[in-house]
Amino acid sequence: MASQLLIMVASRCLCGGKAMRPSGSRAWAIFLFITCWVFFFIAEVCLLVASVRNGYHTKYLSDPSYSCQKVRKGIFGAGAAFVVLTGIVSELYYVSYSKANDGQPSYDRDAGIRMGSL
């Protein structure tokens, strides 16, 4: 969660700062931004479900009919895999975002028409 927060603060969550220049990098940045959040959500849900199953299993340990050891390992594994995928996609998102912001023309100077000396 901290890495997701860090990458969103660094890139201003695509909603703050200067507009990105139109290019393929901008399209990839938007696509990877959405993919990053989807993977993050899936990872969080998998880890939450696995921890709930683990808590249920330890609470009702005496019941022999309930066996979720393989399911629990699979859910934790899927959650861990999506955490890694989120990290990879976040890195790719930041690279695409940085490329889309490179070469921005600076508008610090006055670009208007000036009147000549009268």
TrEMBL record:
Keywords: Membrane, Signal, Transmembrane, Transmembrane helix. GO terms for cellular component: endomembrane system. Its main location: membrane. The keyword Transmembrane applies. InterPro entries: DEAL/Modifying_wall_lignin1/2, DESIGUAL. It is found in: Endomembrane system. The chain crosses the membrane at residues 25-53, 74-95. It is a multi-pass membrane protein. Belongs to the DESIGUAL family. This is Fiber protein Fb34. It comes from Salix udensis.
